[in-house]
Design goal:
The protein has 138 residues and is mostly helical. It has one domain. 57% of the residues lie in helices and 0% in strands. The chain is built from six helices and no strands. The radius of gyration is 15 Å and the shape is globular. The two termini are 14 Å apart.
């Protein structure tokens, strides 16, 4: 699933300077570290569809909700909250481009917008499976 998400984000980046230069598969798990920086979700976590999740699955569901909620709650209909965009871009700038050169600030902001857009528009089931895959949860 992470590979499909990476392909989808890269396709959205077509025609921009970041098309094909960011390794999205390596970057997406890094974005999970943003969860600790995001404000607490406004809405409660929806019930987990798994009838008896183990603790790792329950944490993955909760973190998937925090990721989606961070994107949705910070979206005003046309742009993201500057603090969220800046934090996300800073996490992305810590990564390197595929050619080994650092990611520029402008490219990091563009990548942050694409990542947040993808999280905002994805279903909880997709985000949950991606969080599980990134954390190697069975």
């Amino acid at each position: 699933m992470l590979a499909k998400r990476a392909e989808r984000i890269n396709a959205k980046a077509k025609g921009t300077p970041i098309y094909g230069v960011i390794d999205w598969i390596a970057l997406l798990p890094t974005l999970l570290s943003l969860l600790s920086l995001c404000k607490k979700p406004v809405n409660p976590t929806p019930p987990n569809p798994n009838p008896s999740p183990n603790s790792a699955q329950a944490n993955a569901w909760s973190d998937a909700w925090r990721l989606k909620s961070a994107a949705v709650d910070n979206w005003d209909g046309s742009d993201y909250a500057p603090a969220t965009l800046k934090r996300t871009a800073n996490q992305i700038r810590k990564a390197k481009r595929r050619d080994g050169t650092p990611i520029t600030k402008a490219d990091a902001i563009q990548a942050a917008i694409l990542s947040l857009d993808d999280a905002r528009t994805s279903t909880m089931a997709d985000l949950y499976s991606d969080v599980c895959e990134a954390r190697h949860v069975a």
